[in-house]
Amino acid sequence: MTMMTRLLTLLALMLALPFAAGTAQAQSGGSFAPVVTVNGMGVTDYEISQRQRFMQLLNAGSNSREDAEKALIEDRLRVWAGNRIGIKLDEAAIQQGMDEFAGRANMTGEQFVQALQKEGVDPNTFRNFTEAGLVWRQVVRARFGPQVNITKADIDRAMKPESQTGKGVKVLISEAIVPAPPGRERAAMGQARQLSAAQGEGAFAALARQYSAAPSRDRGGRLDWMPIDKLPPQLRGVVLKLKPGTATQPIELKGAVAVFMLRAIGDGDAPSGPQTLSYMTFAIGQTGSQQSAKIQSQVAAARQCNQLYTIGKGFPPSALTMHEDVAQAQVPTNVGLALSHLDVGESEVIPQGANDLLVMLCDRKVAPEGDQSAPDRDQVRAALESKALEAYANGYMADLEADAVIVRK
């Protein structure tokens, strides 16, 4: 596994850490003068540029300058909250945290830093990110730890097989997939931000009809109930954090930007476990072209993937690709999202920049999970405590932001 591949695997870890915690030289641009102060602590243009580069390198869905600035403001608040109660970390503790974070991708902290430097990211970006996260973890535990009481009954319930996997969750969501062809990325992001800011289902639906290129646009982006495990793994946590009637921040896909609104959430059937998907992709030409429309019309009658080979005669071999038994987590997010809507033999067209990509689901299987030992009681207790503390942490951060003195220069 290359260093860059390992870097990308850290993305999910970075986004999932409950209390997760920036900088190559000035070639990345940006001034060293503060452009934002947070309770008297400065954030420089250079730091914002570096954090944005860090987020882009990890392929984070939210990696605009505004997102980078928000992340740094939150980090300043984490450190400020730590200072209030006297939490200070020595260099050894910070280095241990960097090694621990990088170790999740089988890298040392030094290897991770070297990989970042090759991509133009100053080591201080990673260091400061880690330090803020470690301080925040201690702040949250000190402030809310005594309020978390995990009982023996809680652990017993969590360790029951039917509870460990849960009854399953089903979600009712609306989607908007905004095409972002070359040269139009900025405009697409602006439209996506309007969708993210939509107040309620009706407003979102109106914007989805206007901006979305997904087949669901005629329904205002509304999708039917679906088990959460049909969604790409990259999107599940993002959707489950929403309150009904609220939308995600823009999520960058290949050649498009996506926004999702949660309409309702409920109990479903027990999840079947990890999935592998077999599917075909067919590059059918420029969006709005006669060729694309013709192929879509022909595919509408197809019910098996092998029928696409007949329809695709005359196309370059690279236009039609069979993907067999791909782990769901390895399917590109935009493709995985389309497949989540489909039964075997069904197809959907998704935008990829200025072109259309047709996706057909050939098979969906439950993947073997291998020999995995069950978690012991201490591990279950730790997981339950972490989940409870995360809820407290999110609320406390919202309070800190509301009370903070934030000045933009």
UniProtKB/TrEMBL annotation:
InterPro entries: OMP_Chaperone_SurA (IPR050280), PPIase_dom_sf (IPR046357), PPIase_PpiC (IPR000297), Trigger_fact/SurA_dom_sf (IPR027304). Keywords: Isomerase, Rotamase, Signal. Pfam families: Rotamase. Residues 1-26 form the signal peptide. The keyword tRNA processing does not apply. Residues 161-264 form the PpiC domain. It comes from the Bacteria. GO terms for molecular function: isomerase activity. PANTHER family: CHAPERONE SURA (PTHR47637). This is Parvulin-like PPIase.
